[in-house]
Specification:
Layout lengths: L3 H25 L3 H4 L4 E7 L4 E4 L5 H17 L10 E4 L11 E10 L2 E11 L25 E5 L2 E2 L1 H9 L4 H29 L5 H20 L4 E10 L5 E11 L4 E5 L15 H16 L7 H4 L2 E4 L18 H4 L3 H8 L16 E8 L5 E3 L3 E3 L26 H7 L2 E9 L13 E8 L5 E6 L20 E4 L2 E2 L6 E3 L5 E4 L13
Parallel strand pairs: 10-11
Antiparallel strand pairs: 1-2, 1-5, 3-4, 3-6, 4-5, 6-7, 8-9, 9-10, 12-13, 12-14, 12-17, 15-16, 16-21, 17-20, 18-19, 18-21
Length: 519
């Protein structure tokens, strides 16, 4: 067993490496959603493909999906064929983060001729061809370019055929290839820093270190579960999605205090959707583990060990268990609601550690067209959040991207990057639910495009009808509103817009916690 002080020093070095990897990725990236919003994940893996450490920057949907993606990729390639300078790539939704826009890159790290680990990253790319970020595609093949598990670089040389295929299938190849370059560069930095760590502390590899970190993380997570009362607890959340469909997520959370394990069963949840909002198991697992880990002990490292005691059971026909060829491009619209029924179940066990329902999925926007000079543009999706649900001892935060954690790209950056003009952006006061602790407020955002030609709009609002429910007697939040030229719209499929058209979004408020005074 490794000495605690020595372990802490090495652990701090690992966190430093993966955080520098993430900072480099953000600095080099072309797209505002990566550079400004931090819609990314970086992880460091041992030679067996187990996630040992993650960067502090990132989103749960990417980070915990990346933890599974590394092993999926390594199960597909012949590890004996990997050489220094190789870089593996895929955007297969079932192998990585759930839709084509999220491309995962994995780079082997060599020392003295053998692999001692892997550097991985997943980021949201601005365009991948096909339908775009909306939910209107009818099957996955309408949604864009599908990149199977391939070598993007082989022994340091680019795969020219793959690069040409990518360039010819996306609308903004310079941005996509620039962001891919940022991912590859961040992996090179991680490899250099990990080898430097081994030199500094006289290590041949990190196997003993990763074993100790993962063992301790798993043991601490199991101990936190054993401190809970055993039993099965139920939670249900309902929300409306683009097109007016109402989705039900139902969970049975079983706490096995003896073994220190938690199983989350989604039996009773809605079936598959005809819209592109279906969620692959890895993404469902990502937000399930996030909800439980943040409730149990959020200070524990997030790695293969701390994720191991949390298990999923998914019905075959279920919106959170997408099967090929289901459309999945807007999978976050449902995936970001996954924590809420779990938190409702855990509220029966640890009510002081959970939050009420919030606005749920961020409202994503993508615009496409030609600017005044005739140059084509395709925006990265930019996100707007509503109010977060209240906590037992604190109000909900306003206009905060819970549970994703991705930041909103600033108005100034968007206006500098695309021909867009914002006519307003402010909090919508009073939209959070009442309670002993009130829910967070949503926000009001208006914009139009600076173009003389028609342009395309993709938006994915949710909770236009079903409010965020309060918890423990707290009041419900206010549903959102989506308008074009002052008229309410519920059909949010990709649409042609005219110059001068104005879009207004009022995002939902979060639920309150506990009854208000005097109730």
């Amino acid at each position: 067993m490794m000495d605690g002080v020595h372990l802490q020093i090495l652990w701090s070095n690992l966190i430093g490496i993966v955080s520098e990897q993430a900072r480099a990725l953000q600095r080099i990236a072309f797209s505002p959603i990566v550079r400004e919003a931090g819609d990314l994940a970086n992880g460091l893996f041992d030679a067996r493909g187990r996630m040992v450490a993650q960067a502090v920057t990132g989103t749960p949907g990417h980070i915990n999906s990346l933890a599974a993606a590394a092993r999926n990729l390594l199960d597909t390639v012949d590890e004996a064929s990997l050489a220094p300078g190789d870089v593996i790539i895929t955007n297969d939704p079932w192998m990585s983060a759930g839709h084509f826009f999220d491309i995962t890159v994995l780079s082997p790290i060599f020392r003295d001729g053998r692999i001692i680990g892997f550097a991985g990253s997943t980021i949201h790319h601005s365009d991948i061809g096909g339908y775009g970020i909306g939910s209107g595609a009818r099957d996955i093949h309408e949604e864009g370019l599908w990149i199977p598990v391939l070598k993007l670089y082989e022994a340091g040389q680019p795969n020219r055929t793959l690069f040409e295929i990518i360039k010819r299938n996306v609308r903004t190849p310079d941005a996509l290839l620039g962001d891919l370059g940022a991912q590859v560069s961040s992996g090179m930095i991680a490899a250099e820093r990990l080898n430097a760590l081994c030199d500094r502390y006289g290590l041949d590899d990190i196997e003993a270190l990763s074993d100790e970190i993962i063992r301790r993380s798993e043991a601490a997570t199991r101990d936190a579960i054993r401190a809970l009362p055993g039993g099965t607890f139920h939670g249900t959340s309902r929300f409306d999605v683009p097109g007016g469909e109402t989705i039900t997520l139902q969970t049975a959370v079983t706490i096995d205090a003896a073994e220190g394990e938690i199983t989350v069963d989604f039996e009773g949840s809605s079936g598959p959707s005809a819209a592109g909002i279906n969620v692959v198991p890895a993404y469902t697992h990502a937000y399930t583990t996030f909800a439980i880990r943040s409730t149990l002990n959020p200070d524990l490292p997030n790695n293969a060990g701390s994720l191991a005691p949390i298990r999923l059971k998914l019905p075959d026909d279920c919106v959170v268990n997408a099967r090929y060829p289901a459309p999945v491009n807007a999978r976050h619209v449902v995936g970001m609601y996954v924590p809420f029924p779990i938190l409702k179940a855990l509220a029966q066990v640890v009510p002081d550690r959970v939050v009420a329902e919030g606005s749920g999925a961020v409202w994503t926007v993508q615009v496409q067209g030609r600017d005044a000079a005739g140059r084509p543009f395709t925006s990265s999706m930019f996100n707007y959040s509503g109010g977060m649900g209240a906590r037992a001892g604190k109000p909900g935060l306003s206009a905060i991207c819970y549970p994703t954690g991705v930041a909103a790209v600033s108005v100034e950056v968007l206006e500098a990057s695309y021909p867009i003009v914002f006519t307003g952006k402010e909090l919508e006061r009073g939209t959070g639910g009442a309670g002993r602790q009130p829910g967070g407020d949503g926000q009001r955002i208006g914009f139009r495009m600076r173009t003389q030609q028609p342009w395309l709009l993709n938006t994915i609002p949710s909770r236009l009808r079903c409010p965020a429910e309060g918890l423990a007697g707290g009041g419900d939040g206010t549903p959102g509103r989506f308008e074009i030229n002052g008229q309410p719209e519920s059909d949010t499929r990709k649409r042609m817009m005219q110059p001068g058209d104005e879009v207004l979004m009022v995002t939902p408020g979060g639920g309150g916690f506990g009854p208000a005074e005097g109730e």
